[in-house]
Q: What sequence folds into this?
């Protein structure tokens, strides 16, 4: 049985015939391997599963990298926002502190002025009261209608006003205590 070469030419020698046989065997082996591969459903499914696993692994790596990058971005933005809030809070705190200091200084100045005014007015009132008391004392000292012991006591008080003030304060305390005791007795 002779086979014809589809190309229309036969082998020109035994070496060429051997080469053609090897080539045909190789093609036949490839064809058989392809047929076996097509017939091996489990093997193809495993290969497809392995491909899908590889693709899924690559996607997982990409997703993780993207998520990590997004996480770092969010973290950076949050840190910047935190620093911004902290800076603004510090500025607001300094502003409030400065304003409080200004208000404190203004209040202190006003209180100081008010204190000086009160002190000045009290000094004027004290001088006026002392002048009136001295005038009254001099009038009493020279008035002949006032008994002599009273005139001498007033003269001594005018010459040494501190002991006289102490005596007057003690007398006022005694009178105040007597008034309080009377009120207590009335209430009981």
A:
């Amino acid at each position: 049985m002779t086979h014809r070469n589809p190309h229309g030419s036969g082998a020109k020698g035994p070496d060429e015939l051997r080469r053609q046989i090897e080539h045909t065997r190789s093609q036949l082996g490839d064809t058989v391997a392809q047929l076996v591969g097509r017939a091996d459903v489990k093997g193809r499914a495993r290969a497809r599963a392995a491909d899908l696993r590889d693709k899924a692994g690559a996607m997982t790596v990409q997703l993780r990298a993207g998520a990590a990058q997004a996480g770092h971005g969010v973290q950076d933005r949050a840190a910047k926002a935190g620093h911004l809030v902290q800076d603004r809070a510090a500025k607001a705190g300094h502003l409030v502190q400065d304003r409080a200091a200004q208000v404190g200084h203004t209040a202190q100045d006003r209180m100081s002025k008010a204190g000086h005014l009160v002190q000045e007015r009290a000094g004027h009132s004290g001088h006026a009261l002392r002048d009136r008391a001295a005038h009254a004392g001099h009038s009493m000292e020279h008035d002949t209608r006032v008994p002599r012991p009273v005139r001498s006591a007033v003269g001594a008080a005018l010459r040494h006003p501190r002991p006289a003030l102490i005596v007057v304060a003690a007398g006022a305390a005694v009178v105040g205590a007597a008034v309080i005791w009377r009120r207590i007795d009335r209430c009981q």
